[in-house]
Amino acid sequence: MRLKDKVALITGAANGIGLATARQFANEGAIVVLADVQPEALERAQAELAARGARAEAHRMDVTDRAQVDAVVQRVLQRHGRVDVLVNNAGITRDARLQKMTEAQFDLVIDVNLKGVFHCTQAVVDSMVEQGRGVILNASSVVGLYGNFGQTNYAATKAGVIGFTKTWARELGPKGVRVNAVCPGFIATDILSTIPEKVLEQMRGNCWMRRLGAPEEIAKVYAFLASDEASYVNGVALEVSGGMTL
Ligand code: NAD
């Protein structure tokens, strides 16, 4: 119960890594606030957690829409008085080689993966600073560390998120707020659904554990970083890839 009574807002929580993180946090005693743009999946996720006796609430929230983000954060603050943990997990891909990438593909990925993280963090940060503690966790990627074919937009956002993390760790560390990023390798979720099986096979081959990761394996790392066990961990971009990049 490392997260007992912690109020945790998780974006993109209706599926994949976000949902696994919501389950993990709930198992560890957190009050989980799920936010996502997919209302039906969100409702399913909330119902599943509630059925297990978890304290979970769901909000339709598009991280690109600052007014929506502010409104959800205000509701959470009114109801619970604080946000202890923010997991900036929502993310998308719109892949194309540089020569083929449209401006719309570029802008959409920047809006969700980069500007969305800025919106959500700015919306919660004053309350964290006021209470003198808080944890912000950002979803980066090995792609942000090393680049990836066909992912000009995505790689830029995931590298940008590391820039956010290191900057905010400096700005907020002295105020009791820790900020860290997680850089997963390739994890079996819907985000990989557009990748051909042949390429997935290559990804497995490139990983020294010869398999994709499971969403739960990232969720457990978020739970550790969110907990007091990581009380002196600040400003890191932690690669969790089964040794993919060795
Ligand atoms: P996923 O597609 O399974 O889930 C992403 C969730 O984000 C979805 O529920 C989606 O509805 C939500 N979302 C999308 N746009 C949103 C918006 N504007 N506002 C709010 N929610 C929105 O993906 P995933 O694999 O679980 O990825 C989660 C995060 O982890 C992403 O940031 C992704 O870039 C990152 N990541 C994933 C992998 C991987 O291999 N799966 C690897 C590295 C990093």
Structure write-up:
The chain has helices at 16-27, 39-51, 66-80, 103-131, 142-146, 152-172, 197-206, 215-226; strands at residues 7-11, 31-36, 55-60, 85-88, 134-139, 177-184, 237-240. It has a seven-stranded parallel beta sheet with strand order 3-2-1-4-5-6-7, with helices on both faces. The model has no long low-confidence stretch (mean pLDDT 97). The two termini are 34 Å apart. With 246 residues, the chain is an alpha/beta fold. The longest helix has 29 residues, at 103-131. Strand 2, helix 2 (39-51) and strand 3 (55-60) form a beta-alpha-beta unit. It has eight helices and seven strands; from the N terminus they run βαβαβαβαβααβααβ. Bound molecules: nicotinamide-adenine-dinucleotide. Residues 6-185 form the Ketoreductase domain. Belongs to the short-chain dehydrogenases/reductases (SDR) family. InterPro entries: 3oxo_ACP_reduc (IPR011284), KR_dom (IPR057326), NAD(P)-bd_dom_sf (IPR036291), Sc_DH/Rdtase_CS (IPR020904), SDR_fam (IPR002347). It catalyses: a (3R)-hydroxyacyl-[ACP] + NADP(+) = a 3-oxoacyl-[ACP] + NADPH + H(+).
